[in-house]
Amino acid sequence: MATAEQLRAECAREIDRYEYGHFHNRPWLREAFLTVPREAFVPERVWWPHRSPEDDKFPLIKQREAPVRWLRAVYRARSPLITQIADGAVLPDGPTDCPDFSGSISCPAVVVNMLHHLDPRPGDRVLEIGTGTGYSTALLAARVGAASITSIEIDKDLAAHAETALRTVGCTPHLIVGDGEEGYPPGAPYDRIISTVAVRQLPQAWVDQVRPGGVILTPLDTPFQCDGLARLTVDGQGRATGCFVGAVDFMKTRGQRGHRSYAELGWPTWDGYQVTVESGEQRIRTNS
């Protein structure tokens, strides 16, 4: 049976093969990935995110009953694991046909790629929107230090799990239970904001709480059947401008789950790549 350390190294080698982003030019990130035990952040019971062909349900993987399967699932480079369904209404006691995923631990490759594009510096003040399991928080703390991180989670049960897991690995960032769309003004200004949940419209509060020249990295809902990973630079005048650096698929913030037309959200009728947010107005345009 492969150990967690062996599977972690195997996962890192797979991510090494990805051509862009990820570990490239980020030796600190690869070291953090090999050091932080991802398995410490994964609940004992999680759902596999793909339906079983046998019963068309999402299988539940139980660590105690299937430790090898569970651990290998933890280190699948391209596979997230579902930690909550329907805001906790579906209990983790068996397979389910409910697709209302509301909590997960993102796949290792996506976590790494997002931190690559965030590109934090040692000591940067970072606001993380969506603590989730706490795994991304721990990797980030390896770079900037736990004391420099404020992480906010809207779900108190998920927040409690993350706090316990983080303390288990000796990481004690500033954890808040609250609505991440509002940011966290007492800790502002931040050098970086990273969101592990998608938005349809970037909250102006995030722009206002980042220092001039600081960065916001967030999944942004698009008309293209995926979220665009937007990296924006703040100018200190209520404006943030940037481009999409990848395609991802994330759950929406609770306040932005409702459908809104893309025309209302500022999307043009052609493919847009440049994102501008100014005084609450969002515009997407081509680079040309």
Describe, in plain words, how this protein is organized in 3D:
With 288 residues, this protein is of the alpha/beta class. The protein has two domains: 4-105, no CATH class; 114-285, 3-Layer(aba) Sandwich (Rossmann fold). 24% of the residues lie in helices and 26% in strands. The protein contains seven helices and 13 strands. The chain has helices spanning 4-16, 27-35, 67-74, 108-118, 135-144, 156-168, 204-208, and strands spanning 45-47, 60-62, 81-85, 101-105, 126-129, 149-153, 174-177, 190-195, 210-221, 227-234, 239-248, 274-278, 281-285. The chain has a nine-stranded mixed beta sheet with strand order 7-6-5-8-9-10-11-12-13. It has a two-stranded antiparallel sheet with strand order 1-2. The longest helix is centred in the N-terminal third of the chain and has 13 residues, at 4-16. The chain is globular, with a radius of gyration of 18 Å. The mean pLDDT is 93.
| Beta-strand percentage range | 25-35%
Q: How many structural units, i.e. domains?
A: 2
Find the CATH superfamily of the largest domain: Vaccinia Virus protein VP39
Kindly state the percentage of residues in helix: 10-25%
User: Any idea what the shape is?
Assistant: globular
Number of strands: 13
Mean pLDDT equals 93
- Based on the coordinates given, report the CATH architecture of the largest domain: 3-Layer(aba) Sandwich
**N- to C-terminal distance:** 54 Å
Strand line-up of the largest beta sheet: 7-6-5-8-9-10-11-12-13
Poorly predicted spans? none
Tell me the CATH topology of the largest domain.
Rossmann fold
The main sheet comes to: 9 strands, mixed
H-E order: HHEEHEEHEHEHEEHEEEEE
* Radius of gyration over all CA atoms, rounded: 18 Å
